[in-house]
Structure formats: C-alpha cells, structure tokens
Design brief:
Glucose Oxidase, domain 1; 6-stranded mixed beta sheet; about 25% helix; globular
Length: about 300
C-alpha cells in the first residue's frame, strides 16, 4: 500500500463535494474548524453546486474537482465535504493512475465509502474513514474528541491510540489490512468491479437510520457473497438508532456463526464522537471481553519519528 504524507500546520487541504449538496453555513463552520487546526482550506466549486435535489453538481464537475485536488501540488490533503449520495457515480470516471501518482491524505465517511474502497483497491492508496467539514465540523461546537482523533490520525508527529469496543461478540485475535465503511454502500457495490475485497482483512462496518430487518438483509447479502467467511476479523462501529439488542437476531445468526473474531461498539461512523480509522493500514483486532476488546493500528507509518501504536 501507498501511505500518503501526513499533514503539517500551514498545509493546504481541499474540500470537495463528492456526494450530496452542501449547506453553506455548515461549510463555513467546517472551514473555520480546519483553520483553527492550522490548516488552509481550498473550497472546490462542487461545494457550491447542485444538480437535482440530492447531488452536489453534475458528475463531471465532482470528478473534475477531485482530480484537480489530487493533481495540485500545493494541496497536501483532501476532505470530502459531506456524504449523502453520489460518490458511487464517480467510480467509472476516475483517473486512478492520476490518484496513484499523487498520493495524498483523503478523508470522509458514509457515502464516501465507495471512494475509499475504489482508491484502496485500484490505487493501492491508504485513506482515512473520518469526519467531514460539513457533517462533523459544520456545527457551532464540533465534538472535541472527534477533532482530537482526526488530528491524531492525519498530522505528523502524532501517534495512534487503540479504539476500545463495548462488546466482544466472538473471541479471538486477528491481524490484517483494515477495510470497510458504510454497510449500505458496501452492499450496493457487490457484483460490480468495485466490490470490496475482504480476504484476510479486518472488515469494519457502520450504518445509520436503518431498520433492523434492513440491516439483516444487508448483512445477509455480505454473508452470501462470502465477505464474512473470507475476512480475518469483523469490527462493528455505530449503528444508531439501532443497537446491539435490536440487531441481536441479525448479528447472532448471520455474523457470529462465521467464527471470526468480532467486536461491537467502535465509536466510528454516524455518531459523536466519530473517531478516524485509517483504511488500508494493518490492524490487530482483539476480542476477549468488554475490558479487553479493541482495534489497534500497527505501525502504519514506519518512517514516522514518533509513531506508537499503543
């Protein structure tokens, strides 16, 4: 895997809309949050565009802005403005050679899962499942733990901390490359050239605003596609408003019988705080008990002077 150079204060990052229409007030707040972290923000035209009722501009604009952000040498990192819907429409039009030649920090979650999966697998570039300017940094008082996790992940001279889970669903320990993201998006990509690869990997899943039977259906789709049986381990993030109790049948009957080390309750996804996960990095999943279940990143940046996975 290619690991992009981490950020320093004073660096310029691009904010580009890859999915839904941006709220301008929240966008301004998100820019202010990044500036407070010592970064300069370049807002791409797609952040002010709309196409129909749910897309931030036509596909060609969103693709062009993403290409421009990767190609511009003055831009050191890229943040998707928000999720929603539309990132998957970009996949056939992306210049994956351009992205691979210009490896940079790329951050987002939710619908941006489509881009993470494609960039990880087609470019061999590690990316970051994490907060976005409009959705997470767009409020008047962004969550401090979300900000702390973000800076800990993407800035130089910082270290990773292990993320504790609330429940061990199936005991064991597994090590592998971290992959995954939003459950609905991952399921929608099955049977396409962009289908997620899970063999020997730690599969992370999160979801929001889905009824238990819909989550059951999505998990069944992944199960029938062999994604759980191929995985080394499984880590569930936030599924609000559903919780482990309401999803008991789906989890216990579809996932646990696969016999993979499985944990529940990582503070990642459509939740606050929303911790940043580096996709494409090697991780160890430990599932023993609520006090001894976590996801730990293993030296994703061996060249970092102060990298400490503990």
């Amino acid at each position: 895997m290619l690991y992009p150079k981490l950020l320093n204060k004073g660096d310029t990052v691009a904010i580009t809309a890859t999915s839904g229409i941006c709220n301008t007030t929240r966008l301004k707040n998100g820019v202010r949050t990044l500036e407070n972290l010592g970064l300069k923000a370049k807002v791409m035209k797609s952040c002010y565009a709309s196409h129909g009722e749910y897309l931030a501009g036509k596909d060609d604009l969103r693709v062009r802005n993403l290409h421009e952000a990767f190609a511009d040498k003055s831009i050191k990192g890229i943040l998707a403005a928000r999720g929603g819907y539309g990132a998957g429409r970009l996949l056939p039009h992306l210049d994956y050679h351009l992205i691979r030649r210009n490896p940079k920090i790329f951050v987002g979650f939710s619908d941006v899962t489509a881009l993470h999966t494609a960039i990880n697998q087609f470019c061999g570039l590690a990316t970051f499942h994490g907060p976005m300017p409009v959705s997470c940094f767009g409020g008047s008082n962004p969550d401090p733990l979300t900000i702390a996790s973000f800076t800990n992940a993407v800035f130089q001279n910082t270290s990773y901390v292990e993320l504790a889970a609330t429940t061990a669903l199936y005991p064991g320990q597994a090590t592998g490359m971290l992959t995954g993201g939003n459950l609905s998006v991952i399921a929608s990509m099955l049977g396409t050239p962009y289908e997620i690869k899970t063999r020997g990997r730690i599969l992370f899943l999160e979801e929001t605003q889905e009824e238990p039977y819909r989550v059951d259906r999505l998990l069944l789709q992944l199960k029938l596609a062999g994604k759980f049986s191929e995985a080394a381990g499984i880590a569930f993030g936030d599924f609000s408003p559903a919780n482990l109790e309401t999803l008991h049948i789906a989890i216990q009957e579809l996932v646990v019988p696969e016999g993979k080390p499985t944990i529940w309750g990582l503070p990642c996804g459509h939740t606050s705080p929303n911790f940043t996960l580096p996709l494409g990095h090697v991780a160890t999943l430990l599932s023993q008990s609520p006090q001894k279940s976590h996801l730990r990143l293993l030296h994703p940046y061996p060249f970092s002077q102060t990298m400490n996975p503990s």
